[in-house]
Each structure stands twice: as structure tokens, then as C-alpha cells.
Amino acid sequence: MAKASICTIGDEILIGQIVDTNSSLLASHLGGLGIIVSSMCSLPDRESDIVSILSRELENNDIVITTGGLGPTKDDITKKSLARLFGASGWRQDAAQLEINRAILHSRGLDLLEENLAQSLVPDCCEVINNEYGTAPILVFHKGNKFLYCLPGVPHEVCNVLAKVMKHIEMHFHCPKTIHRNLMTFGLAESALSKKIEDWETSLPPYIHLAYLPNTLSGVKLRLSLYDATKDGEEELERRYSSLKAILKDEIYAEGESSLQEEIAKLLCGSTETLSAAESCTGGKISELITGIPGVSSFYLGSVTSYAISVKEKVLGVNDATIEKYGVVSEEVAEEMARGVRSLAGSTYSVATTGLAGPGGDGMNPEGTVCIAVDGPLGSRSRRFQYKNDRKRNIERFAAAALDMLRRYIIEARTTPRS
Amino acid sequence: MAKASICTIGDEILIGQIVDTNSSLLASHLGGLGIIVSSMCSLPDRESDIVSILSRELENNDIVITTGGLGPTKDDITKKSLARLFGASGWRQDAAQLEINRAILHSRGLDLLEENLAQSLVPDCCEVINNEYGTAPILVFHKGNKFLYCLPGVPHEVCNVLAKVMKHIEMHFHCPKTIHRNLMTFGLAESALSKKIEDWETSLPPYIHLAYLPNTLSGVKLRLSLYDATKDGEEELERRYSSLKAILKDEIYAEGESSLQEEIAKLLCGSTETLSAAESCTGGKISELITGIPGVSSFYLGSVTSYAISVKEKVLGVNDATIEKYGVVSEEVAEEMARGVRSLAGSTYSVATTGLAGPGGDGMNPEGTVCIAVDGPLGSRSRRFQYKNDRKRNIERFAAAALDMLRRYIIEARTTPRS
Known about the structure:
Two copies of one chain form a homodimer. With 419 residues, chain A is α/β, with parallel strands linked by helices. The first copy, chain A, has helices at residues 11-14, 22-32, 47-60, 75-85, 95-107, 155-172, 190-196, 198-202, 231-248, 260-268, 285-291, 309-314, 320-326, 331-345, 391-415, and strands at 3-9, 36-43, 63-67, 91-93, 121-123, 127-129, 138-143, 146-151, 179-185, 208-215, 219-226, 252-255, 275-279, 300-306, 349-355, 369-375, 381-386. The first copy, chain A, contains 15 helices and 17 strands. Strand 2 (36-43) of chain A pairs antiparallel with strand 2 (36-43) of chain B.
């Protein structure tokens, strides 16, 4: 199997100004091709370091991918270092990239100036993959069987040129066929999931790998991977995948890559059913997650963030006697909030939260308590949860728990015959 | 000046499962001590790699900091590798960490088991800095003048032990006095800011460094740094800092580290004034940003996310004739939304957004258009903005622009004599 190294060039990484997200993205795509990432490193914008570290990485690997260090001001250092490393005898203008750059500048209302010419100037010993999303082209150098890909550092440019780079790698290296199968689960923590599928996991053949990928907002993703796939291996993977689905049934909310809000959007888009939300402790997070998906205006009517008790009472119609009797953080108040916003917006479904994200409890409930209610054709449902995180993560957990309750409710309502 | 290397240990980084945020955090704190980070790298959970790469990094640097590779299952590999690298002759139980671990497990309702003892077992040749936030202590190895700090990988644990580690470094290395002075600006892009302060910047003495640190939500932070500070240098820094403030006046919203929502919270906390919001295209983002700050319930009453026109009309009282005449994305509708939510919540101030985050425009307005209104004692103010980003970044820019308008309005209202 081919080995790769990912190198980030740029002082801004080493001084901690920027978190590098490119390396992780590149690594997961290389993994998808069955290529092992043996190391990652960050180097400064200094020619001697670039030449010595990249030489070392080329020695130890088949593929080296660099990102960054190609900005208009730093341009010369990285390209010059690579020209030296690979023994270029001169420079040439890349006509296709020059045209792209002219068009990009034009769309910003700018003319191509002398100093812009340098961006499409490349060492004569490298191949070019054009970058349609930025002014620095991808440079491909090779020495014997080894390849170095030099990419820009801007994350959305890396994202957009990724497919072309991976295709080039696939053409030049043996990429064992690799198959990944994902299941999105919600409701059980990693340890509880692992307990539940213990027997299944122990009996996995050694060539099928299982990874637990937990995320506060989207639950635990289970990824089954088969490297160097054969036909028999593929069939076995499908069998194991099916038996895993059968064990986890209710915990699974999607196959492949997804999120709770995307699943809710899939359920409601194109139907005549609509949704609204009432948020107290989640402060707008549920609404922000739903409206992060394009096209939700077809079913999402809106929400009320009722941070103050007065808004709960005046806008959502929560009864002050309910608050008096059960407290603001109670299943009863959550239910009245859900009913209130549903009637206010005139939606088919609604979801509501009231709780304490922290820091600090309210005397009756500890920090991390949340009461969630869902309302709709089946009436009100509510539940109390207790989490133990900091404010930011508590808010995320509350929102995710609310979305999961809502998703389950919609599915139940759809499959329950109306009387 | 001392040189440092930051090494991340763990397969989960190399397969792209996790984005490493620890290195960036550590680098910025080392920079604060005047220590140069010369390289960063990620290595797999394999003893031979750990020993060889850490040896190499120790050779080239004065300080090596590792994070990760200390989980209960991977425990042995990193600690064993370090014990080998530094020639430990045996292991010892760290009594203080053992007690901490017992307490942590107890708070989760668990007893300390045989297998938990391994977490507080450390090589006999290292010093221990206790970790109060997790079960793996920080190990400090040294060889001659060189130090290696072995930290856990969980970001919130790194965050919490950071101060202790930096203090240890300060005690053992000459840390040139470094002074940073920050100004938070909003409203001008990096290029426009740079144009505005061009003369000031050109005249900076070579020992004072300026960095532009842009962020979608909080604008451009300007950081002035003085390394190896002398008394004269410090005085000069203060003079330059003051003259920069004088040039940028209106663009500056805070000194030090801050965000627009924190500045709004500072203005309103402890006053009798209150706030509400009406969000269409920002979908809850403004509310989420404000409620991300603890203690805002003293002034923040809540918001209405009016995604559907029916909610704009029914809940916020927007006139259908206004929508008919000016379109939903208009300054007129934004103003009616702001007035509507202010009267509904009974707040002193309100802010409202209506726009198109994309993908796609509405025929009249292109994607990236937003109309923002603020309402309060000075009456309604509104403005139209045009951005060119993807949906996620457009929503962030809209929310930030709205918070900045609101902040400026509150300040103006405070300084305008009431008639």
C-alpha cells in the first residue's frame, strides 16, 4: 500500500493563528483510496526548512501533499523551494491558469496587473492541475515513482480541487478498492453502544474494521471499512452491515452520512406538514441547525426564543400557575411552550426546550438539566434529560436531544392510523 | 530564544477522523512566552515511530510538547515509548493523581478498578503535573537542558492544564518578555483596514509587529506585538497603540479580546434596558450568539424566528401591504419586524434581519442580500448589505453586521440626550 505525508506550509499555523483543517480533509480522502497517511507536519515559510523537510518526507513516503505558502506575497518561497528541490531549469507561464486568473480578477472588478502574472508562473519541471476557485494552480512534481502535490492553503479551494487531485493519485498509484459503510446512531453513548454490539463486534473477521465516531450534535457514527476489497469480502461486509442494523434498529436514524436536522428535513420537505419551535435554554440553536439546511422554508415556519418568563407567558401563552407549581424547568412548562408555539405558528408539529445550560443550577435543578416537549397530531410528549458538560456543549446536547425526539415523533405520527 | 516542537500522537488524527485544535492553542501560548514553535507533527500510535520522531524533535528543539495517545486503551504505548526514550528504570504510582482519579470516577458513580490503576502509573524518571480534569497526569521528562511535556489529547483537558504547563516552562527557560496589544475592529475588510493605516504601519519600528487576524463573526483583530521588551520598547508600543486607536476610532469596538455580542452584553448587563430580536434569514444565529454568553437572561428577553411570511404577519404584525410593495427582503419589512418584536417583547431595543443566505436569489435580490433594522428610543434605523459567500458564511456575516448595528445604536442612544 502507498504511503503519504501531508505537509502544511505557513508561519500562521506555527504561531497558532489558524487551526489547520486541510490535513484532516486530505487524510480522510486518502484513506478512502486505501492510502496510509504516515505523518503530518507543519513547516515555516523558510526555504531551507521547506527543502530539508520535504526531502525527508519524500524519502519516507510515496506521496507528499503540501498545502499553503502560495499566497501572492509568499508565492516565491514555496515555488522557488520546490523548483530547487526538483531541479527545475526555468519557469513558464501556464496559459490556462492565466486565463482563469484574469476571469477571477475581472469578476471582482479588477484588471490583471504585472504582479498577478507571478501566480500563474510555474517551474518548467512540473505538471499543472488548474484551480478554478483561486489564483494559485496545483503543481505536481515527480521524481522516480514519487509524487509531490503542491496545493493552495485556502480551505474552500482545497475542498474544490480535492477530486482532481485524488483522481491524479488514483491514476498513478495502486489504490486497493476500499469500501466504507456508515450508520448514524443517536441516543446511546459510545460505551453503551459498544456493550450492545459486543458479540457482533468480537465476531468480525479481521479484514473488516469498525470505528466509533462520536459527535455532540449528530450522535455516534459507526463506520465499517473493508480495505483491499474482494467480491467475497464485499458480500461479507454487506452481511455484517445488515446484522448490525438488525441489532441497533431503533438507535439508527440514517445510513450513510447525515444529521438529525437533515433527516427531519427529508421527512417534511415535499409534504404538507409544517414545523415550529419554542426555545428557552437552547437560545436559538435548534432553529439555527434547521435553517442551516437550504430549502427548509417549505416546511419550517419559525420559532420563538422565550428567554424571559414574560415572553413564555405573553407570546407562548404559558400559564403562570404552571410555572408557579412545577417551576420553569419542568416537563409541564415545556409542553405548554410546545403547544403555544404550535398554535401561534399554526404548524403540524412543534418542539420546545426549557432548562439550565449552566454555569449554575436554579436550586431545584442542577446545571445540565433540560425538559423537552414535542407536540403534534399525537398530542404532547415530554421528557427530562440530565447532561454534564460546559455551557456550549450542554446547549448542543439539548438541541440534539430535542431534534431526535422530534424525529421519532414525526415517524410515529406518520405510521399511526388517524382515528 | 528557545525553540519548541508540538507533536500530536494518535491514529485518529492521521486518518482524518479528528481536526487537531490543541496544537494551535499550545502554539499561541508558547508564542506569548516568546518561544518559537519550529515545527508541528502528527504521529501514529506506534512505539517505533514515537521513539524515532520524538528523538528527532528533541534533537532540533529545546522543548517538545506531545498531546494525545494516553487514552486508557492506548496508555501503554506512549508512556512505554517515553519510558524507553528517557531510560526509566521502573514505574511508580502517583498518589495524588490516583486520588484525583478516584474522585472523578466516584462523581460518575463508578468505583476505581484494577485497570484504572494504570492511568496514574508513571515512569520513575519523570516529574508529574496533576491533571484535575481527567485521569491522565501530565508527564515532564528532561534530558540535559531539554524538556518533554506529555499531555492528554482531550481539548478541554489541554485547555485546563495549559496554565500549569506554561508556568513550568517559564520556570525552566528564559522567556523574553513579550507584550501583545489587541484591538477588535468591525466594518472594514482586511485590505481596506490596511489601506487606512498604511502610513502608520510603514512607520512602525522593526521590533513592533502587526498582525491582521480576520474572523467572520468578530471582524478583524489587530495585534501589535513586542518581543524581548525593554522599557523604551514598551513605551514606544503604547505610543503606537494610541496613535492606531486615534486613526481607527469608529472601527474599533473593543480593546483586548472580545466579540460583538460580548460588548452588547457588557452594555446591557446591570442596566434596566432590555433586548429582543426578530430573525428571518439568520434563522436563530443572532439569538444563539447572544445566549452563548452566560448571564444574558438579565437583559435578553427573547426572539422570534419568522421564517414564514405568515409568522412575520401574524406574530410580528408586519403589514402585508409593506411586503407587497417593497418585497420581503427590504429595509421597510426589516423595520416593521424590529418594531413588531420590540412591542411584543416589551424591550428597550430590538434588531431584525430579512435576506437571502442562498443558494439562489429571489428574482429581485441576489443571494447574499440582507436588510437589517434596529429599533429603540431613537426610532428605526435600517440598512441593506450585500455579501458574496456560501450559505453558512453569509448567515454568519448577516448576524455579525446586525450585532454591530445594534451595538452602535445602543451607544448612540446612551449618548443622545432624551428630549
